[in-house]
Amino acid sequence: MMKSLFGKIFLWFWLTSILLTVASVFIAVFLTGTPVLRQWASNFGDLYSRNVVQSYLLGGDAGLDQFLTSTEQAREIQTTLFGPDGERIRGGALTPFQQGLLEEARASGRTECRIRLAWQCAAVVDTPRGKFVVVGRALHPRRMVRQLPLSAVLTRAMLILLFASGLCFALARYIARPVEVLQHATRRIAAGDLSARAAPALAPRKDELVSLAEEFDVMAARIEALMQSQRQMLGDISHELRSPLTRLRVALELAEGGDAEAMKRMNADLQKLEQLIEQVLTLNRLDAGEKWVELQSTNLETVLSEVVRDANYEGRARNVSVELKAEPLTIKANPALLKSCVENIVRNALRYSPDNGRVEVEERAVSDSTGRVGHPQWVEIRVRDHGPGVPPEALPRLFEPFYRVAESRSEKSGGRGLGLSIAQRAAAVHGGTVEAKNREGGGLEVLVKLPVRS
Where are the transmembrane segments (predicted)? Predict the structure, then answer.
């Protein structure tokens, strides 16, 4: 048990409670004296004083000397007896402290006791011959302690110890349980169960350990999502590679049979394979961060103009135009990566625009998050189309690799679900963000927000 956190916490609590109990008893008995002990000492002093006076009244000086001698030898109690007239019958001179006890006893008419390192009492004994006063002092307090009712003391001590042990157990369990829950969840994740969570098992609690468990669950959920995304990506890549390879195999057989169109089909499928591999490699490099990215002063209007020019050429077949509204602005960026970011978004808008439609690209500088224009801190690039838009439940997943809103529509349009993922990661490498929302009246608007670095 000592190797576990629970065992260590329990042992420390248990030892601390025992030490506190012992210290409390020591202070109570030897330094202050509790009401129970003072009452016991008063009763003992009253009984002892009556025996002293009785011995004197029945046996005189000889009887008193015999009683006190035996008592001092057995219990080591120093005794002084005063007669009704105040004369000292037996014993030595009193200390100032004992003199104070004597005066208090005479004034109150009852036994007065003080418990310090030594127990001292002054008792008034009323007899037919008058009031005698006995002052006693325990020479060795430990002998007086031995006269306490040990069975009752031990019983109470055991009850206190049992209560303290139960309380220590509960406290140690309360503190160590979150650690045990986290350990169990960690082992499950290590064994491959990525659905393991810790916070639900600690739901009633509200403390730092529960906050740690919640952070652990966030981490576990992120790992689970990444692993699922990785498995899905591998499956999607396999699917994307299988279709062109199958067509290549068929085209090769046709080419061997003398089909002249087979070579064109093979070339088109090879280009698709090359594009897919290039996109996957780009996505992988972007996920690695910005260590490989070199930033330089880039004219944003020039980059956007090139993208719009290429998009207009591509849209001529369906009579879809791309309009640009921009102003000269220089930012710190990687030109090729920035062009890839905007180009993927524009091509996605072009792909889902209806025939004879229009795509709008707008660039503007803003000074802060409120959108006010001034000394530019951010640049916003908005790409709007007039297509069917995206279902609201699909918007959060729009930038996931290989995610396509409608499989059949994406295949018809030639999309593989990688363009928007590349755009988002390219913006992130530049310290920016990409967001998408449906427009009122139809269509999708994608907002790219990039910092203007000096």
Answer: 12-31, 153-176
Report how far apart the first and last C-alpha atoms of the chain are (Å, whole number): 61
- The CATH code of the domain at 291-451 is 3.30.565.10
Under CATH, which architecture does the 194-288 domain have? Orthogonal Bundle (1.10)
Global confidence as pTM? 0.49
Assign domain 33-148 to its CATH architecture: 2-Layer Sandwich (3.30)
- Counting every residue, how long is the chain? 454
- What's the pLDDT tens digit per position in 38-71? 666 778 788 888 888 888 888 888 888 888 888 7
DSSP codes of every residue in 382-448: EEE--S----GGGGGGTTSTT--S-HHHHHHHT--S-HHHHHHHHHHHTT-EEEEEEPTTS-EEEEE
| Chain mean position to CA 152 | 47
Do strands 378-384 and 330-333 pair parallel, antiparallel, or not at all (unpaired)?
unpaired
Cα–Cα distance, 285 to 97 (Å, whole number): 91
Domain extents in the chain = 33-148, 194-288, 291-451
